[in-house]
Amino acid sequence: MKVRKMPVYETDDQGAKIKHLSAKWYAVFVDSSEALRRLPLLEDRKASEETARTINAMNSIRASGDTMPPDLARYIETMPPVIRSKLAEWGILSGSRVAATQPLAERLTDWTTALLAKGNTARHAELVTSRARKAFAACRFKLWTDISPSKFQSHVADLREDRKDARGDTIRGISAQTFNFYLQAVRQFCRWMVRDGRASESALTHLRGLNVRTDRRHDRRALSPDELRWLLNVTGQSAERFGMTGAARAMLYRLAVETGLRAAELRSLTRSSFMLEGPDPSVTIAAAYAKNRRQDTLPLRANTAALLREHLAGKMPHAQAFTVPNRTEVSRMLRADLADARRAWLESHRNAQGALEGQGGTFLAYRDGAGRYADFHALRHSFITGLVTGGVNPKVAQTLARHSVITYGCGDGNG
User: Fold this and answer.
1) By the 8 A CB rule, do 282 and 297 touch?
2) Domains in the chain: how many in total?
3) Which tens digit of pLDDT belongs to each residue from 38-66?
4) How many CB atoms lie within 10 A of CB 159?
5) Which residue among 57, 173, 202, 394 sits deepest, i.e. has the most Cβ atoms within 10 Å of its Cβ?
6) Are residues 184 and 143 in the same domain?
């Protein structure tokens, strides 16, 4: 491979051709396909010679079919994009290597496609890619080579700071849990870039999430057995709300408390998800909709199976078992049903002030005296708490709760 300046011809005012040398140095070589190539490099000779040596090494690797060493892969990512693109056009450099220099917005679109191809739901794919997109926007990362761990920590940390709006009201910054969600999405994207051969390594591998226990914004509480009985009984006899009858909502809450299924998982269930005949009734959550991306089959109580048979009677195998509202509305729905159940309970205790005071005045309350909430995900919290207080073996409880590690908390923050 030779590094030289190329002749350039210009025409003067009289029409005569004038020859001079190019401002840039060129790499002149024969590639693995025996084609003669002339590639413009840089104006600095020393830098051009270093780039030419790298191109020569790449050409040899391409011809022999060897694996590109990590140090060479990292060097390629720092090369000018126009050089990388030309090498990819000639087949010396794979197109995936060029991808690292293209806008992150385009690579995120590719990642969405890859997630869907793996069997993830459109909702999950959009959720994680939107988190990565927001994090990159906050950090002003436009290219793969812009990604820096220190800048990520600094810029995303700014999102955790409280600020004042135009009226002087305080707007709280993002929680530690939300920070972790952003970090998890970005790290997942970076791992995909490396696995897919589009980048040599991830700059964010060593970053760790924050301890969410030091920044609790929305702690949940378990509903007591008495609270659950009142909730199910009152809701079962109430009118339609958010497109669901009272009986359907009560069945949904009962299933959530008995299985620990999350709202999105319950929303995915169809008639064929249930096996309600025989001595071991069960419900199966498909891997694509489970948070752990694993298919699981959970046992059901015989009396719950009987109620489900009645609820699902007449539905086709692929019909949706429950018309669960979206994430925001499902919590509003439960909150309204809790309020109705609480009013009914207070009415029944209007002449028993002692009993009311004994409950601390928070029986069936959306938010208790300790600031803990009874939102939809609290039904899962109630399920896990029931396993623990019921003396279930920790390993069995872990399996039923579908946690990757044994934990006595809810383990996640999704509603």
Assistant:
1) yes
2) 3
3) 999 999 999 999 999 988 888 888 777 77
4) 16
5) 202
6) yes
